[in-house]
């Protein structure tokens, strides 16, 4: 099995990229890239996974609907991935999520299977740890959006992986 997907080899439905546990042959993680035109919207069910909606370029509104309520988050976004850290939305399992963008944009939807449902929430850019890793010409900046997700989500995934 290969872990390299050349450009344009992993689209599915409305997604420019759609990698799921089933398509990749692993247990938990998913990645989708959603491209919306100005005024575009997309709705998806989270099923057994929690999701982070992360603007790659552009801003959007994220709505999470479920039996517990209705949450809406305005994501300012950014002009591109090299233009700094962005805000994001955490959408729990067993919800219906809608991403809408007045100006259009490109959005990463990162998912992880989980067993526990947590509340939807907004993640401000200021809460995202910016880390420097490596040294010299091998150094890089990592914007650790996963570390800014609800801490309970990280513990849930870790306990699911070990138990």
TrEMBL record:
GO terms for molecular function: glucuronate isomerase activity. Keywords: Isomerase. GO terms for biological process: inositol catabolic process. Pfam families: KduI. InterPro entries: Deoxy-glucuronate_isom_IolB, KduI/IolB_isomerase, RmlC-like_jellyroll, RmlC_Cupin_sf. Coiled coil: none annotated. PANTHER family: 5-DEOXY-GLUCURONATE ISOMERASE. This is 5-deoxy-glucuronate isomerase. It comes from Streptomyces haneummycinicus.
């Amino acid at each position: 099995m290969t872990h390299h997907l050349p450009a344009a080899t992993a689209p599915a439905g409305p997604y420019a990229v759609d990698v799921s546990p089933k398509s990749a042959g692993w247990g938990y993680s998913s990645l989708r890239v959603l491209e919306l035109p100005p005024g575009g919207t997309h709705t998806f069910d989270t099923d057994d996974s929690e999701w982070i909606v992360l603007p790659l370029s552009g801003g959007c509104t994220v709505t999470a609907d479920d039996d517990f309520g209705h949450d809406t988050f305005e994501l300012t976004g950014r002009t591109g991935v090299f233009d700094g850290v962005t805000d994001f939305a955490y959408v729990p399992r067993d919800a219906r999520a809608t991403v809408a963008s007045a100006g259009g944009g490109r959005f990463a939807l990162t998912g992880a299977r989980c067993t526990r449902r947590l509340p939807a929430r907004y993640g401000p850019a200021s809460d995202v740890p910016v880390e420097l890793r490596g040294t010299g010409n091998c150094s890089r900046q990592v914007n650790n959006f996963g570390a800014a997700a609800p801490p309970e989500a990280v513990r849930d995934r870790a306990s699911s992986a070990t138990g």
